């Protein structure tokens, strides 16, 4: 069975599995990375995600290698550009990665523009299909934090300036669509609000947040935003004509024609004659860490603590973003993960199939029919057999009985890895 596809945006069809590349250049050598990319592409995956800061753990010596390896694969394998969807991300303010534009310090126009140009150069391509803000410029609770602390807010670059820089890149043909990552409901709505107010600003088409059996926080707030804040694309001849609405409760309207990016559209606008065919889209979730950094695979529950080259073992104490969220010394996390693992054993499923299938891939799964907002699950693999296990998840059907048991565990252990 081929990997299912999803229409993320006009002329942007992605596989519902996306190969993340953050191990390329650290855990995976160039030949190993090429092998994984070959297997993924030949297995029906057309969607590849990277970031300017990758690989992880982040180091000055390796920064940018993941994008570089991906670009070298495209060039050396002579992959037709329209056969793949490339996504990458600009790093938000950190202060810890001084080798990336001095911090990076902020997401102002100069930093975003420089980041885009550098990613294009490393990947040796003319354009990026989906360009994402890796994390917000402003303070937000992330990577295991759950409570917002107003005293931690700092001076940040406005969303208007960020969207202005991204709109210029769209107009220049450097990027096609934009998305956000590690965002909150407030952030998603602000990006929508600003794009609604300033007509030539692109509208976000995706949110890349963590989503797995141990972390369903997306459903608590952002899901509602994504569901309601859709857009319509009217199709006339070979062009996508977008009829945009400006202002609240009325105001003026005008039309904008583009073949590159989606812009905010009011569902109440009346299209010009002749009546066009139209397609509607919602903002979609790109679910990263579907296996909770490998915890849901069960490998860390072995008597010896799992493979010595597993990420949480080999980088122990060096990967704070992951360890702060997926900490097996937390008894609640461990108990929940073990119970999900027991479900897989009970129904003779591989734990990977249970975790991935629960998110988005089994078209017959009850959870999928209930939750149509997940476009693709972004997973990582350092070995061929890991990649193959994820590909097999496409053929798994989760029965109502399995879904019920999963939801029972979720009710007792709600989001232990937020």
UniProtKB/TrEMBL annotation:
<feature type="domain" description="NADP-dependent oxidoreductase">
    <location>
        <begin position="16"/>
        <end position="232"/>
    </location>
</feature>
<dbReference type="Pfam" id="PF00248">
    <property type="entry name" value="Aldo_ket_red"/>
</dbReference>
<dbReference type="InterPro" id="IPR023210">
    <property type="entry name" value="NADP_OxRdtase_dom"/>
</dbReference>
<dbReference type="InterPro" id="IPR020471">
    <property type="entry name" value="AKR"/>
</dbReference>
<protein>
    <recommendedName>
        <fullName>NADP-dependent oxidoreductase domain-containing protein</fullName>
    </recommendedName>
</protein>
<dbReference type="InterPro" id="IPR036812">
    <property type="entry name" value="NAD(P)_OxRdtase_dom_sf"/>
</dbReference>
<dbReference type="GO" id="GO:0016491">
    <property type="term" value="F:oxidoreductase activity"/>
</dbReference>
<feature type="domain" description="NADP-dependent oxidoreductase">
    <location>
        <begin position="282"/>
        <end position="409"/>
    </location>
</feature>
């Amino acid at each position: 069975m081929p990997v299912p596809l999803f229409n993320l945006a006009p002329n942007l069809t992605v596989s519902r599995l996306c190969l993340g590349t953050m191990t390329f250049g650290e855990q995976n050598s160039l030949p190993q990375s090429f092998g994984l990319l070959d297997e993924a592409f030949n297995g029906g995956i057309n969607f590849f995600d990277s970031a300017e800061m990758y690989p992880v753990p982040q180091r000055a010596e390796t920064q940018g290698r993941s994008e570089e390896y991906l670009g070298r694969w495209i060039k050396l394998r002579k992959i037709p550009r329209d056969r793949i969807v490339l996504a990458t991300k600009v790093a938000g303010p950190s202060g810890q990665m001084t080798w990336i534009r001095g911090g990076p310090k902020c997401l102002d126009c100069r930093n975003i523009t420089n980041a885009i140009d550098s990613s294009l150069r490393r990947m040796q391509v003319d354009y990026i299909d989906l360009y994402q803000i890796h994390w917000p410029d402003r303070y937000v609770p992330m990577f295991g934090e759950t409570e917002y602390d107003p005293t931690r807010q700092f001076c940040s670059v406005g969303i208007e300036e960020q969207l202005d820089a991204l709109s210029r890149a769209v107009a220049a043909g450097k990027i096609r669509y934009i998305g956000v990552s590690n965002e909150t409901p407030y952030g998603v709505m602000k990006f929508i609000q600003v794009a609604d107010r300033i007509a030539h600003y692109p509208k976000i088409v995706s949110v890349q947040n963590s989503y797995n059996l141990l972390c369903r926080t997306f459903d608590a707030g952002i899901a509602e935003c994504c569901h309601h804040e859709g857009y319509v694309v009217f199709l006339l001849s070979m062009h996508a004509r977008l009829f945009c609405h400006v202002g609240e409760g009325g105001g003026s309207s005008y039309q904008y024609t583009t073949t590159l990016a989606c812009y905010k559209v009011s569902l109440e606008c009346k299209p010009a004659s002749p009546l066009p065919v139209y397609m509607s889209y919602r903002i979609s979730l790109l679910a990263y860490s579907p296996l909770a950094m490998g915890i849901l695979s069960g490998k860390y529950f072995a008597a010896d603590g799992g493979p010595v080259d597993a990420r949480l073992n080999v980088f122990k104490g060096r990967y704070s973003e992951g360890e702060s969220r997926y900490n097996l010394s937390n008894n609640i996390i461990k108990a929940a993960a073990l119970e999900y693992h027991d479900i897989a054993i009970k129904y003779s499923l591989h734990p990977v199939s249970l975790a991935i299938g629960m998110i988005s891939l089994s078209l017959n799964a009850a959870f999928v029919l209930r939750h149509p907002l997940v476009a693709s699950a972004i997973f990582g693999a350092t070995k061929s057999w890991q990649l193959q296990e994820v590909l097999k998840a496409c053929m798994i059907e989760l029965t109502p009985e399995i879904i019920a048991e999963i939801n029972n565990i979720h009710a007792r252990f709600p989001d232990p890895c937020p």
